Amino acid sequence: MIPHIRKQPLPTGITFVVVLVATLHHSVTQEVAATTAVPQTSAAPATPASPGNPERGHYNVTNGNGTVCLMARMGLQLNVTFINTENKTVQELVNLHPNQTKPTGSCDKDTAILTLTEDKTNLIFSFSLNVTSKKYHLSSLALSAAWPDMAAPLNASGSGLDYLRGTLGRSYMCREEQSLMVDANFSLNTYQLQVQPFGLNSDQFGEAEECELDEDDMLIPIIVGAALSGLVLIVLMAYLIGRKRSHAGYQTI
Known about the structure:
seven-stranded mixed sheet; five-stranded antiparallel sheet; alpha+beta; extended; 253 residues
């Protein structure tokens, strides 16, 4: 007599995989978001209405012989706190419009300056190069604005900054939004940024060095994919071992 062989149900581990992967993805996303969160100005008033992401502009600086010595491609949004004509503290988000913005500047051996002017707004980027390490960074940022709703013109600046770090001959790239804090009244939000202030060749960007925000975005799917593959392999092995043990318990009579 041949005993009746029961069909083995799929292990409950399959359900466990789905739940665990969803939980893992949620926790990893929350952790990355927490580590890259933009710090908020403690004294800022209510969050202003967003004008939407700014248009990406193309800005060049040429030296005395007409050669491009600085290139920047970026969308820029000013985050400004000021006293308005009603004597109230307000916070505004203002986008720069590339078709209304004029770039000027200068380049030296270890210093490059980009000035963007739109109507009554001036934004000045100063880059510094360490000729020994061949590393550059944004060392200062200054804003002057005289908007109609301001009680008085605003001047905000920060020196000793360490943003947009890159290597001589290479460009710095950050596709994600990032916030560059300057002082209590001014920060600059950048979008789809690529800049190279030193070592340009034939008006072309050098190899891009990507920011940590972009690298984190690439890391999340890699982590989730690896975890999913590992869990599926573990459940499959457990299922096969379980089937082998079940068959070993039956004998043909």
